[in-house]
Design goal:
Blueprint: E1 5-13, E2 16-28, E3 33-42, E4 48-49, E5 54-55, E6 60-61, E7 66-67, H1 68-86, H2 94-105, H3 116-130, H4 135-151, H5 162-175, H6 180-200, H7 228-235, H8 245-258, H9 262-267, E8 277-281, E9 288-292, H10 295-304, H11 319-332, E10 338-345, E11 348-355, H12 356-359, H13 363-375, H14 380-387, H15 396-410
Helix pairs in contact: 1-2, 3-4, 8-10, 8-11, 8-13, 13-15
Length: 418
């Protein structure tokens, strides 16, 4: 058929004469048939050019301050969808045009569907409550939303194709400089959101995304932990010129002697501390754990147990601040063994040798606990009861480290003289 008229106009909703929304109108068969599609944008009339049917360049619209470039891009997308719908059709019905347009645009059953970024915010708000996300998880997912917004090529669910997803992966690798491991994690977060949008909300009808399964080469990531000798160096660390580092040292060592995560050590209250053990509910997995105390963890607690002690046991700080401080402490202690780190980016291998203190963070304390416990001969099942690990596979990297250390120790006999 090919003969049709398309117009983009501003219209007001009932009771709001001064508030204008953008609408796409299609007419054919001598203007006797019409389909109107609301585009979901609030547009300021004084910044709209009726003759061009576009927003004035560099203008911003509505309370959300939507840029003209985004609205004009959506106008182009609707125009392109109309060209495809009418190509080859012979006097289609109104319902057929409406159905085909909505399918091309990724709209479902005539209902207004939010765009990708606002939908992602709804996803985070809903799932954070239903699943009891920790604040750190909310922060992590909000970062994913910002990446989607910065990518800018998946504005609606109709844009979620294999080609656009491949472009998003390239954006993560090339523009944001992510390694394959990090990009893989980001794609996993995105597909979690897409499953929710498709299965729970019915917003995503195009099936392409389900077949998007990029292959990644896993990095040979070393297990960063402190040996007993290195841990004792940190235990004995004190810098009179930087006394605040003592608090970071104590938190790190407490985690290294109890298996706590940094977030759980920060949340530890005196009401959680008993005479022989601490009772905690972990923030990450919501596991209720009882962890027996030893002489090292008891000594650290004694440093903070005073009549005027606050409710929380340890000084409060962000994980970022603590990570930097731990690196500073380890550098001062001379923990600078070279460590090879291998990463892959788009299939390209990259080997970097770093000093150990550069790789140590607060989570290294938990790994230190696991490795040292296994080296002392404590069985993995008991260690898992302290750490809260429910999957034995998660212990395999630590067991491999212990086995390698045992083999290295045995080679010491080879150097002995008869």
């Amino acid at each position: 058929m090919g003969r049709y008229r398309i117009a983009f106009v501003l219209h007001a909703k009932a009771g709001q004469p001064d508030v204008k929304y953008l609408e796409c109108r299609l007419k054919w068969d001598g203007s006797r048939r019409i389909v109107a599609l609301s585009m979901g944008y609030r547009v300021d009339p004084d910044k709209w050019i009726p003759e061009a049917q576009r927003c004035r360049a560099n203008s911003f619209h509505g309370p959300a301050k939507t840029p003209a470039s985004e609205i004009n891009s959506e106008v182009e997308r609707y125009a392109a969808a109309a060209r495809e719908v009418f190509a080859g059709l012979d006097s289609p019905s109104r319902d057929e045009v409406s159905r085909r347009m909505r399918a091309k645009l990724g709209r479902h059953d005539g209902k207004e569907i939010p765009r990708i970024v606002p939908a992602f915010r709804i996803f985070v708000a809903e799932q954070s409550v239903l699943c009891g996300w920790a604040p750190s998880t909310v922060t992590r997912m909000n970062v994913v939303g910002r990446h989607l917004e910065d990518y800018g090529k998946m504005k609606t669910f109709g844009d979620v194709t294999k080609a656009r997803l491949a472009g998003y992966l390239e954006f993560l690798r090339d523009d944001l400089g992510m390694s394959d491991v990090t990009a893989h994690r980001q794609i996993g977060y995105l597909k979690w959101f897409l499953r929710w949008a498709a299965d729970d909300k019915g917003w995503l009808q195009l099936p392409d995304w389900r077949a998007f399964r990029p292959k990644f080469k896993p990095s040979a990531k070393p297990v960063i932990y402190l040996t007993w000798g290195e841990l004792m160096q940190v235990w004995n660390f004190h810098d009179p010129e930087r006394p605040w580092l003592d608090g970071v040292r104590d938190i790190f060592c407490f985690c290294a002697f109890t298996s706590l995560r940094f977030s759980d050590a920060q949340a530890l209250r005196w009401t959680d501390v008993g005479p022989d053990a601490i009772m905690v509910t972990t923030q990450k997995t919501r596991d209720a754990l009882t962890i027996e105390l030893n002489k090292w963890s008891r000594e650290i607690l004694s440093r903070y147990d005073r009549p005027d002690a606050p409710m929380r046991v340890f000084p409060q700080m962000t994980n970022q601040v603590a990570n930097r401080a731990v690196k500073t402490i380890c550098q001062a202690c001379g923990i600078d063994t070279p460590v090879r780190v291998t990463t892959f980016k788009g299939g390209e291998r990259k080997d970097v040798v770093r000093k150990k203190y550069e790789l140590v963070g607060t989570h290294a304390a938990r790994r230190t606990f696991v490795v040292n416990a296994l080296q002392m001969g404590i069985n993995a099942t008991t260690v898992m009861q302290w750490t809260g690990h429910s999957d034995y596979n998660s212990m395999k990297p630590y067991i491999a480290v212990v086995d390698a250390a045992r083999a290295e120790a045995m080679r010491g006999f080879d150097a002995l003289e008869k």
